[in-house]
Automatic annotation (TrEMBL):
Species per Swiss-Prot/TrEMBL record: Ambispora leptoticha
Keyword Signal attributed: no
Lineage: Eukaryota, Fungi, Fungi incertae sedis, Mucoromycota, Glomeromycotina
Nicotinamide phosphoribosyltransferase N-terminal domain: residues covered: 11-110
Signal peptide: none
Catalysed conversion reaction: beta-nicotinamide D-ribonucleotide + diphosphate = 5-phospho-alpha-D-ribose 1-diphosphate + nicotinamide + H(+)
EC annotation from Swiss-Prot or TrEMBL: 2.4.2.12
Residues annotated for diphosphate binding in this entry: 191, 241, 300
Ranges for domain Nicotinate/nicotinamide phosphoribosyltransferase: 184-436
Protein name as annotated: Nicotinamide phosphoribosyltransferase
Pfam name, any one: NAMPT_N
UniProt similarity note: Belongs to the NAPRTase family.
Length: 506
């Protein structure tokens, strides 16, 4: 059996999907595509998105053979699934046909942007095509394919956070301190995820932009499944409250931490009882032990005012360990830093970094841990991800470009036709109708599945470099609809309007 956790593949879809194979009009070909209809959290000033995570879906759910056992189990299940008094529809014969004729591989062609591509809203990130008698199966896999919303949204969220931190680095960090930027947003989200798979995909998406992570599932997945054994994610030894409170005093716990790990970087949570006391009294009492070991100590607040507790730690560390003033005039602590991981959001990042700058401290003194806001507080509506039919060729060879244009919500409009995505002279991905695409120009929509496995995927290092290069190169917003597609949209809308008027008159 080829399903997930014993669930047969025909059941890995929405309940209404099996009925659609019976409802589609007779056709020779159908095309659908997916787009992010908005920027992150409807940001109209920065509509860039990072497309990522499609490889996982293709490899683990699409490039898998369907079997007769799958059909047998699905048929048994669907016989019990109907809430009404008729048999629940299930395209058994059509599925058995491609199991026999196509060695079990689902009969669809899938094109997608390369992993890590940065584009603007409305850009088709994948396009699917079915033909012949399998045309009605066009959107059967939509449920699975649309799950790319999650890693793409996390990757975009993480990249936007990097922009905030990088701006603070530009203002307050010397060139020789820039290497620390890679670890300045740490993934704390594993325990807040709904499952291992979510932690892997979301955590991997974050690792496109930073190297800091405590989500080991993602670090392992990226290193050994996506990057040929080359490590990307890293972390350091750190205490938790349970460790701190297991000792009779916090001083004992910190002293033990220094004894074991004080030769390298290590972190201690400081608010188990009295945060101010820990900074003002306990920290000075272990300073000589820490200095003797020569490592880098990270102080972690975990309660209180998110901005003030960071400033308190910076001041305490400066008093105990001293600091140097860099070329930009900001203080850099000696052998010590702070990590704030308590309910961190993008807004928190900005507020803390601004306050630290105002107080005269370099941004390289501060790291952040982001958990729920990174891996959990996102959904498909965060960037409005959707898949819609865009073209159909009927059985009489009549071709029709299709678009959704609800009168009640202009934000849910879709695009008509078959698409090619090509870069313009500025390097921006532009959407073209297939028939008017520029010749001898690369189509960014590449075949990743065609009635079976076809794709060789880039390693994770290559994808990381793509994200970094394209994110910085693209303008924050851009009209990415080509003039030819604009004409097609207008013509399609006009045709729809005439058809509606004709029906009303009739």
């Amino acid at each position: 059996m080829s399903g997930f956790y014993g669930i047969p593949l025909p059941v890995l879809t929405d309940s209404y999907k099996p009925s659609h194979s019976f409802l589609f009009p007779e056709a020779k070909k159908a095309v659908a595509y997916a787009e992010f209809r908005s920027g992150f959290k409807n940001d109209n000033e920065d509509t860039r998105i990072v497309f990522y995570g499609f490889r996982y879906i293709i490899e683990n759910y699409i490039s898998v053979k369907w079997t007769r056992k799958d059909v047998e189990l699905a048929e048994k299940f669907f016989a019990t699934h109907n809430a009404g008094y008729t048999n629940f529809p299930f395209p058994k014969d059509l599925i058995l046909k491609f199991i026999e004729e196509n060695d079990g591989y689902f009969p669809i062609k899938i094109e997608a942007l390369p992993e890590g591509t940065v584009a603007h809203k409305h850009t088709p990130v994948f396009q699917i095509t079915t033909e012949g008698e399998y045309t009605p199966l066009l959107t059967y896999l939509e449920t699975l394919l649309l799950m790319a919303w999650y890693p793409s949204t996390v990757a975009t969220c993480s990249r936007r956070a990097r922009d905030v931190i990088e701006k603070a680095y530009q203002d307050t960090v010397d060139d020789d301190g820039y290497w620390t930027l890679e670890s300045r947003l740490h993934d704390f989200g594993f325990r807040g995820c709904t499952g291992i798979e979510q932690s892997m995909l979301g955590g991997a998406a974050h690792l496109l932009n930073f190297t800091g992570t405590d989500t080991l599932s993602a670090a392992y997945y990226v290193q050994y499944h996506l990057n040929n054994g080359k490590p990307i994610g890293s972390s350091i030894p750190a205490t938790e409250h349970s460790v701190m409170t297991a000792y009779k005093t916090e001083r004992e716990a910190i002293s033990k931490m220094i004894e074991l790990f004080g030769f390298g970087a290590f972190a201690c949570v400081m608010d188990s009882y009295d945060y101010a006391f820990a900074l003002e009294k306990i920290l000075p009492s272990v300073a000589s032990q820490k200095l003797e070991k020569g490592g880098f100590m990270v102080l972690r607040p975990d309660s209180g005012d998110q901005v003030e507790v960071v400033l308190m730690a910076l001041r305490a560390a400066e008093k105990v360990f001293g600091c140097d003033v860099n070329k930009k005039g900001y203080k850099v602590l000696r052998g010590c830093g702070v990590i704030q991981g308590d309910a961190v959001t993008s807004e928190t990042l900005s507020a803390i970094l601004a306050a630290a700058k105002e107080a005269g401290y370099s941004a390289q003194n501060i790291a952040f841990g982001m958990g729920g806001a990174l891996l959990q507080k996102v959904n498909r509506d965060t960037m409005s991800f959707a898949c819609k039919l865009s073209h159909i060729t009927y059985s009489d060879d009549t071709k029709r470009d299709v678009m959704k244009i609800p009168k009640s919500d202009g934000g849910k409009i879709s695009l008509p036709g078959e698409f090619v995505v090509q870069r313009n002279a500025e390097g921006v991905p532009i959407i073209h109708p297939k028939e008017s695409a520029a010749p001898n120009t690369e189509n960014l929509l590449r075949v990743v599945y065609d009635h079976g496995k076809v794709c060789d995927w880039d390693d994770f290092d290559t994808v990381r470099k793509r994200v970094a290069k394209e994110w910085s190169a693209l303008p924050t917003k851009y009209d990415n609809i080509s003039p030819e597609l604009r004409v097609k949209i207008d013509k399609t809308i006009e045709t729809l309007k005439k058809n509606r008027e004709s029906l009303q008159m009739g």
